[in-house]
Design brief:
alpha/beta; Rossmann fold; 5-stranded parallel β-sheet; about 15% strand
Length: about 150
């Protein structure tokens, strides 16, 4: 399973999420760091991402040619100008259009209120995402078992 983590600035959210992801799954998943800038990408690589892409051109290249099983990022990845202007129209459009699961981390900023998320800590949000990834991996394993011939 390939999980892309998209973040900008210093990648504080991406960094912490990747640490949790790698601790939970070790080598069962491949984590791709998509940093809108070099610092964000490097910080996510230091946190355990397997490979990184930096800037609009590389992010667009990755998302166009290698659709991940899931993408994770703060709500700003869905809108042009998100993450303090670091998300371009191309990136936002590609993320929204991807044929994969999108785990969007709600941040109650910029007047955006998402009911049901106000009392969740970042730790709880990460746990909910990780639990869903576990379920997806379990289903993948069951599909492989059902489709492989018996000995």
């Amino acid at each position: 399973m390939v999980i892309a983590v998209l973040d900008g600035q210093g990648a504080g959210i991406g960094r912490e999420f990747i640490k949790r992801l790698k601790k939970e799954f070790e080598d069962k998943i491949k984590v791709v760091a998509l940093g809108t800038n070099k610092v964000a990408m490097q910080n996510m690589l230091k946190s355990g991402a397997d490979v990184g892409y930096c800037g609009e051109d590389e992010i667009v290249y990755f998302l166009t040619n290698f659709v991940p099983d899931a993408i994770v990022g703060p709500i700003g990845i869905l809108t042009c100008g998100g993450i303090n202007g670091e998300i371009t129209a191309k990136i936002a459009h590609l993320v929204f259009s991807l044929d994969c699961k999108k785990y969007i981390i709600p941040l109650n900023l910029h007047g955006i209120f998402i009911p049901g998320t106000v009392n969740l800590s970042m730790k709880e949000i990460f746990s909910l995402i990780i639990d869903d990834i576990k379920e997806s991996l379990k289903k993948e394993d069951e599909q492989k078992t059902l489709s492989s011939p018996s000995s």
